Amino acid sequence: MADELKPLIDRFSDLFGEDALIKLLEAKLNGPITADVLTIVCDETLHRIPSHLIQGRCFVFSTGNFDTSSSRTLATHIEARTLALCNLLNSATWTKVRLIFSGHAVLAATAKLAVYRLTHLETEDVLYFGAHGYLEMTLKFRELLGQVR
To answer: Which of 56, 59, 74, 134 meets the CB 3.0–4.6 Å disulfide criterion with 34?
Structure first.
């Protein structure tokens, strides 16, 4: 391992500096343990998702074009992907679920609902806004509903 590690460290240090390497390693060592974190990418078709947005395990809800020639074919695709997501959600105890919005709105809406229904967790949403880049947002629906009159 040392034979592979030294050249990588040297290359990284040459490109970004030793301070950047130290900060990266400290952030990784001092950051949260992400074994119980799930990141869901709604659609992986059009844009490459920056790796720093992915935390813990990554699940791609949909990729490529899907058949929208009829309501039935659309429902078949969404149902299959929802079952795959639900099986993953039931396979572990998640403390945080991140949802990266991409692709058609039906993908994000379905994934978000499945997460909430199965885990009772509010998703940490990652949204892309062109010139403003990626923004993260978590709406606390329970708190908001407590304010309803």
So the answer is: 56
